[in-house]
């Protein structure tokens, strides 16, 4: 397991750890519910440096990647970021990613464990283009700030008022003597900011944020609390809610698809599915009540399988369980009651994001 760069700082804060596809992740700091509340009510800081990254250089880097992903890469200006999917010629997902376009390269920010897989996929199609792929995981890491006091915290640590960033918009800044790139985040609230930090500067930046946030209710946030926030926001995660057979439209990823960009790998499948107007199944929210149920549990209607659960979390303070799962299109109406497995427990379909 590849340890986190800031392992010792997390350990000092009482962290407990888990593994995510070969990389170390902070599970929690002893009180996941308090971490969740900080993200909802004040500000929370999450170490996402377990994520992996690829960097693409060369004169043809933009046109090459443009033809490999569902998003419009050519339309991104330097400093812009966008969410995308990589799919096969049959429309099935290889991975999802965030693209960051910089002056001299493109960066793909990926889920842990996907760097080698995505690189292999891209290299299969890299024939005569002037483009080169580099493992950039150890060059920089992502720290996430979540919560309504995010801008207040950044203003304190930057020494000047911080104007909130629109989703995916970026802004350069010098934080604790380190050059960082700040990016607007879309969940769990519009106030979130993700920071792209050079690996050597991670400790300095983390300590500065913790110190500045001491009077603002800041708490470090682990994976378990982040998963609750993710499910509540209706955000699928590759490897959990999306796999190699998932078509992006099934997972509600229309925001990661450009319909005006021209040809790319898998475009025909996406175009046909869009023209048809529906998918046979789609990702939905499900309220499970007090039924603690495992991911993979079947969803049934009148004894017939109509879907399955992908992620299950317990909503802090309520004892109620929420889930993401795939449901047949005939049963997607919010309020539809489905049976969990062989019953008697039930799940109620909910619109996403959860209220």
UniProtKB/TrEMBL annotation:
Key words, A-Z: Transit peptide
GCVT N-terminal domain span: 6-261
Top-rank taxon, per record: Bacteria
Gene3D superfamilies the UniProt entry points to: Probable tRNA modification gtpase trme, domain 1
Segments forming a coiled coil: none
Keyword Metal-binding: no
Residues that bind substrate: 194
Domain Aminomethyltransferase C-terminal: 281-354
Keyword Transit peptide: yes
Protein name in the entry: Folate-dependent protein for Fe/S cluster synthesis/repair in oxidative stress
């Amino acid at each position: 397991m590849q340890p986190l760069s800031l392992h010792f700082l997390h350990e000092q804060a009482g962290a407990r750890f888990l593994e995510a596809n070969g990389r170390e992740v902070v599970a929690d700091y002893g009180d996941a519910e308090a971490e969740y509340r900080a993200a909802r009510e004040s500000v929370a800081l999450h170490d996402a440096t377990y994520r992996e990254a690829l960097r693409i250089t060369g004169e043809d880097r933009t046109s090459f990647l443009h033809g490999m992903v569902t998003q419009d890469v050519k339309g991104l200006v330097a400093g812009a970021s966008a969410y995308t999917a990589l799919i096969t010629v049959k429309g099935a997902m290889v991975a999802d990613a965030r693209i960051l376009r910089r002056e001299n390269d493109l960066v793909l920010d990926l889920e842990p464990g996907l760097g080698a897989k995505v690189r292999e996929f891209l290299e299969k199609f890299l024939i005569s283009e002037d483009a080169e792929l580099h493992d950039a995981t150890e060059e920089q890491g992502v720290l996430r700030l979540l919560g309504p006091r995010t801008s207040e915290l950044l203003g304190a640590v930057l020494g000047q008022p911080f104007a909130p960033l629109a989703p995916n918009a970026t802004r350069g800044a010098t934080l604790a003597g380190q050059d960082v790139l700040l990016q607007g985040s879309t969940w769990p609230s519009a106030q979130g900011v993700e920071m792209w930090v050079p690996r050597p500067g991670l400790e300095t930046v983390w300590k500065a944020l913790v110190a500045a946030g001491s009077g603002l209710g800041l708490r470090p946030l682990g994976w378990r609390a982040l998963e609750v926030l993710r499910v509540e926001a209706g955000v699928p995660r590759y490897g959990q809610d999306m796999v190699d057979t998932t078509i992006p439209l099934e997972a509600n990823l229309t925001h990661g698809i450009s319909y005006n960009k021209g040809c790319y790998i898998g475009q025909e499948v996406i175009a046909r599915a869009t023209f048809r107007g529906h998918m046979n199944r789609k990702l939905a929210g499900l309220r499970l009540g007090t039924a603690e149920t495992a991911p993979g549990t079947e969803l049934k209607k009148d004894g017939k399988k109509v879907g399955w659960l992908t992620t299950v979390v317990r909503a802090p303070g309520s004892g109620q369980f929420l889930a993401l799962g795939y449901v047949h299109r005939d049963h997607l109406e919010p309020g539809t009651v489905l049976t969990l497995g062989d019953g008697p427990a039930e799940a109620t379909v909910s619109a996403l994001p959860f209220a």
